[in-house]
Amino acid sequence: MTILVADIGGTNTRVALVKEDATAPHSVARFRNAEFPSLEAVLDRYLTDLGRPLCTAACVAVAGPVRNGVGRMTNLAWEMDSERLCAATGAAHGYVINDLEAQGHALENVATRCLMGKPMPQETDETRLVVGLGTGFNAAPVHAGEGAQYTVVPSECGHISLPVWDETSMALAMELAAVHEFASVEEALSGRGLMAVHAHVAGDAAWATTVELIAALQEPEVRDVDRDTMRLFCQLLGRVLGDLALVHLPFGGIYLIGGLARAVSPFFVEGTLPEAFADKGRFREFMADFSLYLVEDDYAALTGCARYVGRQI
């Protein structure tokens, strides 16, 4: 059995093939979404470059809600359903799932690093929480079922209200609301969100991209406003993660995924993320029951797609 798997983010699409019962993808290719009019065009280019291999099944993970089998991107005007996926790939079976759902199915097969708390067994019956930090922001709880079955509950929690706890966070929220009509988590905790926080704190455009800002933070001499930017970003992230932990009770761990998560993770301690996470009054000690991990595999969603197909057919 050959499975075509794809992870469609807001900026890039990763496509690969998975053979037989393997979970590790091969023939991985990456495409910039801005260069293609649709997902079908991406898949056509990929399969053509490989000589049109026969696919038994196809599964794509989309960064957006999936409803009635139709996946709609949150930050991209693309849409996909199983029928169109099968037509595009020639596969007999087609599946469209949320990208966080794919990440949830991959947790037992990808490398992770414990950032905070006590390491947990990779296989656990406890609820886990996958949090995506990249072009957008989202989170999804992963509930263990019988055997090797898992239920990954979709959500769009990147669009909940941004937490406010002092004058600094209030000023940021009001500034974001003035621009977007609503201060959501995603407008602060994403790639563009980090730059919005930087513009608010620094009041300048010294850095045009997150890559430039993060590189500047690694230099021997760091501007105070850049350090303050990352501190506010980490405090926001810590409080949001703390809120989500109390909502979902992920005693199996919280798993950060995405390129931005990996880029900002070295600043968590200096940015006081652990303190912000635990700042829940009389529940402070209770918050120590939740561990925080970083998923280091950039292709984890592809592995999750393959695992999902294996659980369906």
What keywords describe this structure?
globular; Nucleotidyltransferase, domain 5; Hexokinase, domain 1; six-stranded mixed sheet; single chain; alpha/beta
Q: How would you describe what is shown here?
A:
- The chain has 313 residues and is of the alpha/beta class.
- The protein has 2 domains: 2-100, 2-Layer Sandwich (Nucleotidyltransferase, domain 5); 157-295, Hexokinase, domain 1, CATH 3.40.367.
- It has 10 helices and 14 strands.
- It has helices at 39-49, 82-89, 99-106, 167-180, 191-202, 210-217, 224-248, 259-264, 273-278, 300-310, and strands at 2-8, 12-19, 26-32, 57-62, 66-67, 70-72, 79-81, 93-98, 112-116, 128-133, 137-144, 150-152, 254-257, 292-295.
- A 6-stranded mixed β-sheet has the order 9-14-13-10-11-12, with helices on both faces. The chain has a 5-stranded mixed β-sheet with strand order 3-2-1-4-8, with helices on both faces.
- Strand 1 (2-8) and strand 2 form a beta hairpin.
- Helix 3 (99-106) packs across helix 10 and helix 5 crosses helix 7.
- The longest helix is centred in the C-terminal third of the chain and has 25 residues, at 224-248.
- The protein is globular.
- The N and C termini lie close together (11 Å).
- 45% of the residues are buried.
